[in-house]
Protein 1
Amino acid sequence: MNQNNHVQYDDNNIFAKMLKGEIPYHKVFEDDKTLAFMDIMPQAKGHVLVIPKQKAIELADLEPEYAAAVLMTAKKVMQAQRQVFEREGIIQMQLNGSQAGQTVFHYHVHLIPSSIHELGRHAVTQADQGELADLAQQLAAVIAG
Ligand code: AMP
């Protein structure tokens, strides 16, 4: 049992498969403890997810060193989004448990260049792969300096 007491970590969840290199994604940033990539069904243009390289389902499972690392990566991504999309407002969101609407059971922080009043629907519309690749490249280039 994990600390949230009702779900077991699934080694074959979609983000675990990304970390194992088994499925493709549009990478924005990676370090030894985290990975950031484009959300495939964005709630706004430039929607990025940051995940820890730890088998954590949700916040209750996250080890302090990974929590810190995820937030440091989230800061980098947010600063890059501000520059690329020329906007200050970036939503940071994170869902814990299916009752909250969580659909992928590997902890992840959403960073969405949007306003809470304009946010698109959650995980509904698939984006164009070419556009995602282009946005990932732009964000990665800003982070790399
Ligand atoms: P949540 O509902 O908070 O668990 O969010 C899961 C997020 O993962 C949603 O925003 C989905 O659009 C996104 N997602 C699902 N599959 C993929 C994928 N293969 N690549 C990138 N993002 C994904």
Note: The two ends are 42 Å apart (CA to CA).
Protein 2
Amino acid sequence: MKFLVTAGPTREPLDPVRFISNRSSGKMGYAIARAALARRHEVILVSGPVCLSAPKRAETLRVVTADEMFDAVQSRIAEADALVMAAAVSDFKPASFAVSKIKKRSGFARIELAPARDILSSLVFPKKKPLVVGFAAETESLAENALGKLREKRCDLIVGNDVSRADAGFESDDNEVLLCFRGGETRLLRREKKTLLAKKLVKIFERMKENL
Ligand code: CTP
């Protein structure tokens, strides 16, 4: 199979030295890319800014903003058998970009925000639609919110994680996820190393693709 995997955060610039972003480390997406490579799949990894080294056998496309991530995913989606949107894409961006550094004396009274592009919702899929896996980063009502995203985001599977925990989710080496399948069934994968979880997830993606 050919996997198109997104990972890490995006950054939305305010001026040449400042940006809005989030705490995503990219570890989960990179672990999925490595697990897919280990099972002899091809991988295109679309990565936001992270401190991780790119897996050697993946084709890695580096992006910064949500718009750049959208362009990279859209340009390669036709090749993909599976799209795994593990990236924590920014939902907001500064409404305007200041070409010169905003000076302290200007006061920073208020930063106006505009919505960033929702990649999953705005992608144009080819006729032969890939398996689409979204993630849900939640701090409350994990099952309810993840099932909601499954419907809204046209996904075959949502991998829900509770990002309010210190022992899993954002930045951690571990994760615990609630899988929400298109048919409405759910399955909990208990906390373990993201590398091990990624291996299980890739096998689940393979089986789902076979049955699409
Ligand atoms: N996502 C996306 N484009 C965005 C935001 C999110 O494609 N601008 C994708 C993520 O990669 C993930 C899924 O949508 O696979 C859910 O992301 P999440 O951050 O959990 O949800 P949001 O859509 O941002 O909704 P909310 O912030 O209200 O939870």
Note: The two ends are 13 Å apart (CA to CA).
